[in-house]
Amino acid sequence: MTGVNFQFTRGKRNKANRTRSPATERVLTQLKMISQRRKQPKLLQVCQEDHIRHETITTAFKLYRQEINANRAKLLLKQYESIKYAMEDLEQINSYLFHEANTNQKGKRFDLEMRIPTEYPPNQIWLHDYTPAEVAEKK
Amino acid sequence: MSAIIRRYSTVVTKADLWADFSKRSASLGLKDAQLKEALLKGVAATDGPVSITDKAAKMRYASTPGMQPLFETAHTYLQQRAQRTYAAIERIERQISETTDAQVKANLLAQKNKMAVSAEQHNPEVKYTAEYLPENLDMSQAAFRHYAEQKWNNYGKMLLMERLETMSVIPDTMPTLNPEVDVTMEFPCSGASAVVPGAFLHSSTTMKPPTFTIQEFKETDNQLYTILIVNPDTPNVETNGFNTTLHWGLTNVLVSNTDIKVDFSKMCDAFGNNKHEICPYLPPVPEKNLPYQRFAVWVFRQEAAVAVKSARLNNPDFDIREFAQTHGLTAVGAHMWRSKWDRSVSAVREFYNLPKGRIFHPHRL
Amino acid sequence: MSLFAKVSSARVAMRSALLSTTLISTLRAALPATVIPVRTATKKAAGSRTSMRDSAGRRLGVKKQDGTLVKIGDIIVRQRGTRFFPGENCKIGRDHTIYAVEPGYVRIYLDPFHPKRRLIGVALEEHLLLPTPHFAPRVRRFGYAPIERAVDAQAEEARMLKQEALQLPEQLAAEAAKRAQDAARQSVLALQIVAFVELPAEEQTLAGARLLAIENQLRNGRAIADAQSITSFDYHFDIRHEARRAGIAPEETERLSQQYQEMASKVDAAVSFHSLTFDLIPHMSATDMEAAKAQLVEQLRACVKTKKALSKDIDAAVVFSAEERALLKRDYLSEGIAGSVKVFNKDTRKVEVIDAAKLGFVPTL
């Protein structure tokens, strides 16, 4: 393969910008198809120091995420348990209210209580007669 | 990326626990100053990595850009976690000193060992040493033991069990094994290096007793072991079956985390006197035209020092299971090799003053 | 037409209409609307050549019932597919025939690990049941007979496989060459040792042998202390067994051992081996060694400023091990980068080959 011109050609290769003979091109294509590079991904060559540095970073991030997730799980468990105990108390105090609180409300898909609380709730909750500004202008 | 760094940088503050060796063992740090610098401060663009020795490759190497601020943040975060773990370890130590109940104490010790691992496990210096300088591991440190155990679990332990089971050492000798210690064996007098479990050894190699290493992965101090070499393939022509022969036995062998060698030459004085041998070494002397013989090395953990009645050992069919049971031994490790007749067997027999070996018909009846 | 006639004619019309609709619907249900069956002339085109043929019975089945005494190779079951699986001491043939590989009593049992599999095994003794308990040792038959006639036994022992016979001369020659080489080296060492320590003439050969053994152990990568203790142990072990063979009194053996031990301690205190060339060098105590090392490092530091060629000096410094030498070279001898280096030029966006030493090239990120 010595003497082959490996000059880079911008864009699609065609007859006008051809630098190699078609025969050479054919051989090259065939060689490329069977080359080991195509069969396996290129091995990342990282020195030992950088490998450990990389591992340190990924481990730290993994542990950081773990910590956050564990805290969240703990909080959720706490919330769940407090609701459970409250319901147990309610059941003993007033079984009617307990039943009312726990009946499945068919068709109600989103609890009002599940709305994310904001610091400044609007005074007017829903604009019933809302019209987009542009439409209003046209009128 | 810079946003991420800023975000986490606000979380962590500076800590240099892993640079302080006043309370921690010096073996947890890297001895090579240049390597340490490259690991903690990043590979210098002018010098190249220390771990690469080839000069041209060194200069050609380009480290990932922008790694250092991320690494520093990660390093500080991990150190803070380690600091919390060390505080917890101190609390456990206080509890240990206060309790008198043996069971509670054992549980606390196990807990402490676990924490000692997690405090140093992610230290980049420890990690580097464990991964790339395995011959320098200080086994008194829990973190190094943890890495050594992981490595053994992934290869040595599986290989050993595969060999013991496929060659039926289990259950022909002991019923089964839950390996807890890494046992290696070599025959130093013949200049041989470490034996791979199940390898065929020449009779001239096995002529003199082997040496062992017993690596414990839990914290041990003054633990006693018994080592037995048995051959379950000794032919018994009268019964048309096989006997088990005890080839060598050592008891009350002291091994710790750091001193793992069981070197018989150091146990004996110049006249071969020692208090560990329960029967003198009998080398493998297989006979011609018989199938290979298996030599199983069993390592038992002792609860206390044992006194062995040697009369039991003269039985032509040695019962290793009964021996282990009567002496309160727990099998924790094993090794094995195989031997076949070769032209040096007669010399070995002559050396040990053994009778001449029989020659068998080449075909099985 | 009267009213009656009108009504009746209407009834008839209704009935006929009803009749016709039910008839058509039943006909439609009975026959597909489009297919009208027509029988045409046929001629048998292809014959039923294979389907008409039936082979004779293959005489399958269990040939030896449970508890029957069988010989080696006896067929126990002929079957299509694996209605039965081969158990202990049985094998399965190409056509799933199960046959015995050991003489004994047929047992049909279930596989404890695959309860739907029926196994066929052969128990070696009449009182034995199968399967053998999972952790119990296997029951094995030996099956070989020793050659009784001494002449035949001798001939059988001398018999070699072709490969062994072909390799033997080469092997003998290699062994002889090694022995000659060892003898030569031993005599050289025996002569050299006199320069380091005064020894009686009869002990010189022994000292030479000891040094040769130590050198061989060192070449195998063992530490000097280990090599010395192994060599001593080897000697004591040898003479103890020699005495037992020749019937020499133990006192005499003890005297020889004592003598050897004295010689060994004298020699070990006097000489050591160079870690690269394995030449004899004067022995140094650990403290002296440390002091010498420190001094040499100081000298190196002083020389670095003058840029003196130090490579050979470091090689000649016998106190350092090979690894220590490599580290010293790295730290104190910064040679120019040798050879060409491939570097990506950002400006021209091309990979350039640069003679690094010539340019004093330092890559940047």
From TrEMBL, chain A:
Region (Disordered): 1-21
GO molecular function, a single term: structural constituent of ribosome
Keywords from the named record: Mitochondrion, Ribonucleoprotein, Ribosomal protein, Transit peptide
Compartments in which it is found: Mitochondrion
Pfam families per record: MRP-L28
Highest taxon in the source lineage: Eukaryota
GO biological process: mitochondrial translation
GO cellular component: mitochondrial large ribosomal subunit
Recorded family membership: Belongs to the mitochondrion-specific ribosomal protein mL40 family.
Protein name listed in UniProt: Large ribosomal subunit protein mL40
Species of origin: Babjeviella inositovora NRRL Y-12698
Automatic annotation (TrEMBL), chain B:
Protein function: Component of the mitochondrial ribosome (mitoribosome), a dedicated translation machinery responsible for the synthesis of mitochondrial genome-encoded proteins, including at least some of the essential transmembrane subunits of the mitochondrial respiratory chain. The mitoribosomes are attached to the mitochondrial inner membrane and translation products are cotranslationally integrated into the membrane.
Gene3D superfamilies associated with the record: 1.20.58.1180, PEBP-like (3.90.280.10)
One GO process term, biological-process aspect: mitochondrial respiratory chain complex IV assembly
GO cellular component, one term: mitochondrial large ribosomal subunit
Organism: Babjeviella inositovora NRRL Y-12698
Superkingdom of the source species: Eukaryota
Major subcellular location class: mitochondrion
InterPro entries recorded: PEBP, PEBP-like_sf, PEBP_euk
One GO MF term: structural constituent of ribosome
Family of the protein in this entry: Belongs to the phosphatidylethanolamine-binding protein family. Mitochondrion-specific ribosomal protein mL38 subfamily.
Keywords, in A-Z order: Mitochondrion
Cited CDD domains: PEBP_euk
Source organism phylogeny: Eukaryota, Fungi, Dikarya, Ascomycota, Saccharomycotina
SUPFAM superfamilies the record matches: PEBP-like (SSF49777)
Pfam families documented for this protein: PBP
Subcellular location: Mitochondrion
Name of the molecule in the record: Large ribosomal subunit protein mL38
UniProtKB/TrEMBL annotation, chain C:
Stretches assigned to the Large ribosomal subunit protein bL27m C-terminal domain: 152-334
Pfam family, one: Ribosomal_L27_C
Top-level taxon: Eukaryota
Compartments reported by the entry: Mitochondrion
InterPro entries cross-referenced by the UniProt entry: Ribosomal_bL27, Ribosomal_bL27_CS, Ribosomal_bL27m_C
Family, as annotated: Belongs to the bacterial ribosomal protein bL27 family.
PANTHER family, sorted: LARGE RIBOSOMAL SUBUNIT PROTEIN BL27M (PTHR15893:SF0), RIBOSOMAL PROTEIN L27 (PTHR15893)
SUPFAM superfamilies per UniProt: Ribosomal L27 protein-like
Keywords: Mitochondrion, Ribonucleoprotein, Ribosomal protein, Transit peptide
A GO MF label: structural constituent of ribosome
A single Gene Ontology CC term: mitochondrial large ribosomal subunit
A GO BP annotation: translation
Name of the protein this chain belongs to: Large ribosomal subunit protein bL27m
Major subcellular location class: mitochondrion
